Amino acid sequence: MSRVLPEPVRPGFVDCYSASFEGPGAQGIEAYAQVVRPSFDFAIPAYAEGDTFSARAEVCFLPDIVVSRAWSTASRLSRTAETIAARGTDQILVFCYTSGHFDMTVAGRTRRVEAGEMVFIDLSQEVVIEAPRVDNIGLAIARSQLGTRVPAIHRAHGFVRADDAMSRLLRSTMEAIIANARMLTLVDARGVAEALLQLVTTCLQPLSQQLVETGSNTASLVGLKAHIEERLLDPALGQQALLDAFGITRSTLYRLFEPLGGVTGYIARRRLHYAFRQLSDPRQTPEPVSRLAARLGFSHPSAFTRAFKEAYGLSPRQVQALRETARDDEYPLLTSAEPMRYFRPLEPS
Q1: Which of 55, 104, 265, 294 could form a disulfide with 72 if both were Cys (CB 3.0 to 4.6 A apart)?
Q2: How far apart are the C-alpha atoms of 347 and 349, rounded to whole Å?
Q3: Are 349 and 182 in contact (CB under 8 A)?
Q4: What pLDDT, on a 0 to 100 scale, did the predictor assign at position 267?
Q5: Rounded-to-integer distance, Cα 10 and Cα 349, Å
Q6: Do domains 15-207+329-345 and 211-325 have the same CATH topology?
Q7: Helices (DSSP H) in the chain: which residue ranges?
Q8: 3-class secondary-structure state, position 21
Q9: Using CA atoms, how far apart are residues 240 and 55, in angstroms rounded to an integer?
Q10: What is the distance between the alpha carbons of residues 226 and 155, in angstroms, rounded to a whole number?
Q11: What are the tens digits of pLDDT across the range 224-240?
Q12: DSSP state of 260
């Protein structure tokens, strides 16, 4: 089914909507959980379970980008392997708290993120976000729009850009769009969306600056990772292949990947993540697990299944079963058809 939205206020202009949620039940916690369900599982943190819940949200639909503004009392948002498998994996979230803070857990590590810092989340990977109060502005971007601009876009997951001039420029642009989008024509919106993508790409540039000196040459960890991504299905991919391709010493290769658990382990994890995305994405043509395991260089399907389950807590066949219940086109970017009944169109200013 395709996305169903309320009738636009002005055809030919950007669709903008707002919603408010308060208290328990269908108009409060349950309704808000439905609204964020395409991206996250929602819960009230244990320390705030007795408090009165309230939330507000505004969303504006640009081409391939949703701009949103959200406020709420204490919240916990989580994205697990099971959630990912059941609800699609094709979005990158970019957001900034305009006040307060939140705690973000990625790959088992938790860090405090302060207001003004710009955060990037890959919805094909697990994450937990917990905040005593929510006050943020953000973007949901179709992965296809960033994949060609940012090499190895998966590395952006959990990246935090400091509260610097570039972050403030992106934030102020998002705030200006929220304030003016309802008067923006769809023709102009395409140019605005392109400008946003350029700003986001620039904010991610620090990911491409992890360089290490190797004698008279400079080897890029980013370049090595991009090379690995391009050759995940190549059975010859391994330490020697990287040494030959980049002309670096074995000790340099080990030093680069030591913080990542070693080069062999890194390649294995990237292949497993590729498998997870293939198995969980409803848009992909179903593929037998045995064939996928062989394509990724596993000697036997059982070895692949063991490694996969250890990494994600689900077997490949369990992920496939969840995928069968998912309807990816019902979860476009930030919202899906059913929760939109809580939103009302925003009138032009």
Answers
A1: 55
A2: 6
A3: yes
A4: 92
A5: 12
A6: no
A7: 29-36, 81-87, 143-147, 165-180, 186-203, 221-230, 239-246, 250-257, 263-280, 289-295, 301-312, 316-325
A8: strand
A9: 54
A10: 10
A11: 887 888 888 888 899 99
A12: G
At 217, which helix (H) or strand (E)? Answer: strand 217-220
Q: Which residue has the tokens 């394509």?
A: 295
Please report the pLDDT score of residue 281 as a whole number.
Answer: 76
Contact 88, 331 (CB under 8 A): yes
* Choice between 100 and 81, residue whose per-residue pLDDT is larger: 100
Which pair of tokens denotes residue 91? 């979005």
pTM of the model: 0.77
- How much is the pLDDT for 328? 43
Concatenated DSSP letters of 320-340: HHHHHH--GGGS-TT--TGGG
Measured CA to CA, the distance from residue 327 to residue 262 in angstroms comes to 37
Give the CATH number of domain 211-325.
1.10.10.60
Both tokens of 63, joined, read 């081409």
Domain limits, the chain = 15-207+329-345, 211-325
Indicate if the alpha-carbon torsion angle 232, 332, 335, 339 is positive or negative: negative
Place of tokens 């940012």: 150
Domain made up of 15-207+329-345: CATH architecture: Sandwich (2.60)
Q: Look-up: residue for tokens 């391994």? A: 238
